[in-house]
Amino acid sequence: MQKMISVALTGSGGSGVITAGNMILQAAARAGFFGQFGRSSGPQIRGGEAAAMLHLSNHPVDAPGDVFKILVALDWHNTDRFAVELPLSNDSLIIADPDQGDIPDVLLESGAKVVEIPLKKLSKQVAKGRPNMVAVGLISGILGLGEDVVDQAMVKALSKRGEDALTSSRGAAALGRDAANEIEFQASLGDAPQQTNARWLLNGNEATGFGALLGGIRFVAAYPITPATEVLEWMSPNLKKLGGALVQAEDELASINMIIGASYGGTPSLTATSGPGLALMLESLGLAIASEIPVVIVDVMRGGPSTGIPTKSEQSDLNIALFGPHGDAPHLVLAPSGIQDCVKTTAWAVQLAEATQTPTVVLSDQLLGQTRAVVERPDTLPAGSMRKTSAASDEGYQRYLVDNSGISAMAVPGTAGCQYTADGLEHDPVGVPSSQVADHRAQLDKRAGKIENYDFGDDWADIEGDGDLAVIAWGSTAGVVREAIRRLDKGGLNLRLIVPRLLAPAQPSRMAEALKGCDRALSIELSHGAQFYHYLKGYYDIACPLTQYHRPGPLPFRPGELVQEIENWSRS
Amino acid sequence: MNNIPATDQAYGPRDYKSSVKPVWCPGCGDYTVLSSITKALAALALDPENVAVISGIGCSSRIPAYLNTYGFHGVHGRALALATGLKLSRPDLNVLVTGGDGDGFSIGGNHFLHACRRNVDLTYIVMDNRVYGMTKGQPSPTTEPDWDSALAPGGTGLRPFNPLVIALASGANFIARGFSGDPNGTAKLIVDAIRSPGFSFVEVLSPCVTFRGDQRGWKQMVRPAPVDPTEDIGRAARRLMTDDGMNLGVLYQGHREPYVLENNPVYIDAAQLEDQFKL
Q1: Cβ–Cβ gap B78/A253 under 8 Å
Q2: What is the interface pTM, i.e. ipTM, of the complex?
Q3: Residue ranges per domain, chain A?
Q4: What is the distance between the alpha carbons of residues A215 and A295, in angstroms, rounded to a whole number?
Q5: pTM
Q6: A160: Cβ–Cβ under 8 A, 6 or more apart, which residues?
Q7: What are phi and psi of A284, to 5 degrees?
Q8: Is A106 on the interface with B (CB under 8 A)?
Q9: Number of residue pairs across A and B with CB atoms under 8 Å?
């Protein structure tokens, strides 16, 4: 029996709700449960609002729950700003500290049961005790998580903070656990499932960094930006273990040029950014396309345009990733379909970039990047990458030689006799600048052809089910659609799910194959402009009627919402 | 400069020249700067395949194609960033950056500051002609305030940028000024710049005969700096702030350690990083 319990913990920024959420997820993972832990926060670093949102289950979690079973509030500062992100029902429980003021009406309207516990006063009973640690004990008590796993999670989280911090946290958590015993409310996770495969606990940004290193990335240059910074902060120390390095650039214009320089020198290279940074990089993305330098650019998307909503997710950078560079500029765009898939897709991005000498954009997003999850380990880890290089030569080396594959040997500087100038100017096969008709045509054909003719294999998309109604979704939306389809399947609606991992170059014939036998198709995306839908309409030859459901972020999709949309569409 | 053991083979300047014919106007100062670069490379007997010359956009940024070394002709203003990535990841290569005043000090100004600050072992040769030549005669950051042009009739009215002072303030470890009319002297400065560890900045006054005919007069105005190079940053600052921009030679030699990436030994396989995620 599949069971999921969603728990939200809110408080002012700096009150420690994120730390507490991490501990509960860690404890649940150690007890054998699956889970997701997302966060919602404002732009403030301290003193803003923050919510830790946990979705714990005895099955792998593809999507958040529809309503929160439990909401624990350390305080009510600014809760109205994200109340809409914390749906409750009359089946929910609100645990509030009576000393922190009244519960906002917007939450009470749900009809949820209310229990008052003086979290702050309780925490003061312990030297240096903090309310968030009382909440850890309280929540884990209600969920029925054992004291042993909670203690292990605390030791792991606080090991660097010293014995005092651990002692006070243990004391505070014990008081929370005692308080939980007084509450009459059923929300136990029950028994943990039998663990068969190995599991990972990681977020999408770490998974992206790990995939990049498995693919062979050894040089990173980047500029800090929310919500991509954790990719960099994870990679920096881990690159060092592999003999690589990360450089903090002065801006995104420098980041992409630094990685182009490093890749020209023979080192697989990557940068990670978000929408505003990608916008700054576009001119040099074109340079990498024209000069055929493999680089990987990870865009962890957030709400746009402009500064937009830096801390919250959206799928609205699709257009810029696909069509950003000026001129006819073929390049690759990939999108991971889930947190665990960030490993596979980013490694694949490195492999494809290196193999085709083509810059590759990976479109992750804030939901994937900053959601921490317990996932099943894949059976195999991705392999590294290969680049076609040139041996020393006496004469006649042509960097941009035109042949059927379009993939010409890329000499590594230091290789005698193969000196060439990489150029953003149009060039002849040797690399000499040329504005001649025939050279421009030949090099455009070469750069387009090498990725059009490349065999991307079955990884271009994940295709599940064989229904004659198909749902097409990408990125972080895919998991929520998968959960919605699972529920609809129980109701007897047989659906097909298509999740493209390779977004560019477009794969119209593969898509046609995937849609074979379908009567209708529905695309779903988190973008105000329905960018994905328009891309499907414009670049794919979809024989059956295609309709769409889309809306902007920052509110993530929930399965219940998509169940309703898909059901309505299936009946229309 | 690196300790690349140059081969016993002796090179002449011609060995560093490619067969591509420059796009420059007859009489352009950049011709002789190109020959100063090849003379310097020959004097150092560097193997052409171990040299990379990186540039942005503009007349002088065309240089990589005219050389028989590795090269990269990138986008406008970003040559220093590209060269930084190359040099940091390939410390065995000798990396030179060439460009003009618009490329380096206007669109690329931020990278100039940070390249000086970072002090990576690069040699940056700026052919300063105080005009955008490739776009046919617009004022650059080093143009005199009253220089008349179609884009800024009567002049910009703006004080020119002093790149040498900015280089010094930002941390460049070697600062020199050359003149294209003195190719041997400039070649010697480039040799010294390549030999000097860290970020070396060489401004070469290189007249634009097409749009700045007045710069033909530079020949009469330049002079060897009347003083020896200084290692004293305060003295260098005073000299650079007060000279008329026509003193040639090495004007500052610092002793900052160049920025290099830690030479990290490879001590695990990437797959072992999985351990930190395992439950």
Answers
A1: yes
A2: 0.97
A3: 4-180, 202-376, 388-450, 458-571
A4: 12
A5: 0.97
A6: none
A7: -80, -20
A8: no
A9: 185
